[in-house]
Design brief:
The protein is an alpha+beta fold and 481 residues long. It has helices spanning 2-33, 43-55, 63-71, 98-122, 129-143, 163-166, 186-192, 196-205, 222-230, 247-264, 269-307, 311-326, 329-341, 348-374, 377-385, 390-420, 432-443, 447-480; strands at residues 73-81, 86-96, 149-161, 173-175, 178-183, 208-211, 214-217. The chain has two domains: 43-244, no CATH class; 269-480, MetI-like fold. It is built from 18 helices and seven strands.
Length: 481
């Protein structure tokens, strides 16, 4: 009868989970199907959006970049509604062949800017990026009238974005109560401005320049290269690709993007992996030492209660238990490390192990003492009748039975110790919590690193709890057997 009820309960739970998954799938499908632009857009309107985008794309102080934008002719010829809240814009363009112009006059440009920098230094005037940009602008603007043209067709995408994203995006264009954002990645910008991105890359990689027939090393002259490159500066064209997908899809995309940014990029997940290993090492070593300390303290207290001996040891143990159980583990950790161990040169890891072992030992002592007291007094008398003295009776008769009785409680103490070890980061130990905080300090993301740390601890605790449950059932089965 009991098994039938359990099967029925399990069946109901499975049906409820399945129904929830089906409902979620339906909501996602409906949300995706209905995720279309809330406005219409034709070629003329698209042209207005393109013109507004180009009007703000050049850095105002970069005169050459502004001249390139003015020379660009970008025309929307066709508009199609995309698969999400977006529009596909087919455009033709005619622009300055910047790459060909730069390639033909590169040595001249670098030499003139280099000589200018040296002249300013010789005259005792400060040379900065602003002055070098102005000089580069002067040289490039003089060359632009002789530049050739390049043309072609390009497919761009205009995304409808919400107001919260538009506030942080200078290229978001207000349009009929909403915002449109034309996405221009590096490849699109390179085509629309005649190889501009390739020019910038070449400027960054240039290490030598020919001046008056002599090769000059400029590998350490970052200000010079940056000054030339800043004359071609555009802004905010490739900050991000707007996500106009349905709500649930967008939420999933955001989570995936955050996951990759926090953990996949530059293998930042290694901070968590290494921290987890350190946490497990601290927990395991502290648990072993804590059990040893706990058993010793428990035996001293039981011996005092039963024989009246070990009075001084009992007083020391009682004081130890009172202090450790009456103060927070974090405070104990900082006192042990900063006050006691750091002045004598002991490192953070052994200090953490020592502190958590001492802390755990106090709780283990009471667990073991309770286990020893739970052993029937007749067992002690039986041991004495076999000719054992007190120590032999405790070692061969009482402690094995007590250990079996308290084993589940000790396993739970191990779980508690695992969670308490998370405060080790307060003294700089690179544990799991510190790994999460390290990622957080790099990415400035609070949600993903902290949630990851919490989930790892949760998974560890769930696994250990299941193992403790298996252990308890095994012990009960052995007792019935």
């Amino acid at each position: 009868m009991k098994k039938d009820k359990q099967k029925k309960k399990l069946l109901i739970e499975r049906i409820a989970i399945l129904a929830l998954l089906v409902l979620l799938a339906v909501v996602v499908v409906v949300d995706t199907v209905t995720n279309k632009p809330s406005v219409s857009l034709d070629a003329a309107q698209a042209q207005t959006v393109l013109d507004s985008t180009l009007a703000d794309i050049a850095e105002p102080s970069a005169q050459t970049a502004c001249a390139l934008v003015q020379a660009l002719t970008l025309t929307a010829t066709d508009v199609a509604v995309g698969s999400e809240k977006d529009f596909a814009l087919t455009c033709t363009y005619q622009t300055t062949d910047v790459y060909a112009l730069y390639t033909a006059h590169k040595e001249e440009l670098f030499a003139d800017v280099y000589r200018y920098a040296q002249e300013e230094k010789a005259a005792g005037r400060m040379v900065n990026g602003t002055k070098l940009r102005q000089k580069a602008d002067e040289e490039l603007l003089a060359l632009l009238p002789s530049a050739g043209k390049t043309s072609g067709e390009i497919l761009l995408t205009a995304y409808e974005i919400n107001a919260s994203l538009a506030k942080e995006d200078v290229l978001a264009i207000p349009y009929e109560g909403t915002y449109l954002r034309v996405y221009l990645d590096n490849e699109a910008v390179d085509r629309l401005f005649g190889g501009l991105q390739r020019v910038k890359s070449d400027i960054e990689s240039t290490k030598t320049v020919l001046v008056g027939g002599e090769t000059v090393d400029i590998s350490s002259m970052n200000t010079l290269r940056n000054g030339i490159k800043s004359s071609l500066a555009l802004r905010n064209f490739s900050v991000y690709q707007p996500d106009s997908s349905a709500f649930f899809v967008s939420l999933w995309n955001t989570l995936v993007r955050e996951f990759r940014f926090n953990f996949v990029e530059k293998n930042r997940w290694l901070y968590l992996a290494e921290g987890l290993l350190t946490t497990l090492e601290i927990t395991l070593l502290s648990a072993v030492l804590g059990v040893v300390i706990g058993f010793i303290c428990a035996i001293i207290r039981v011996t005092r209660d039963r024989t009246g001996g070990l009075m001084i040891g009992d007083q020391i143990v009682r004081l130890y238990l009172t202090v450790i159980r009456g103060t927070p583990a974090m405070v104990q950790l900082m006192i042990v490390y900063f006050v006691i161990l750091l002045p004598v040169g002991i490192e953070k890891f052994p200090a953490a192990v020592m502190c958590f072992a001492i802390n755990s030992g106090a709780y283990v002592a009471e667990i073991v003492r309770g286990g020893i007291n739970s052993v029937d007094a007749g067992q002690v008398e039986a041991g004495r009748s076999l000719g054992f003295n007190y120590v032999q009776t405790m070692w061969h008769v009482v402690i094995p039975q007590a250990f079996k009785a308290v084993l589940p409680a000790l396993a739970n103490e191990f779980i508690t110790l695992l969670k308490e070890s998370s405060v080790a980061f307060y003294i700089g130990v690179a544990d799991l919590t510190q790994g999460g905080l390290k990622i957080r300090s790099i990415t400035y993301s609070n949600f993903m690193p902290l949630i990851a740390v919490a989930l790892i601890y949760l998974v560890l605790v769930v696994i250990l709890t299941r193992l403790v449950g298996v252990l308890e059932r095994r012990l009960r089965k052995d007792e019935r057997g």
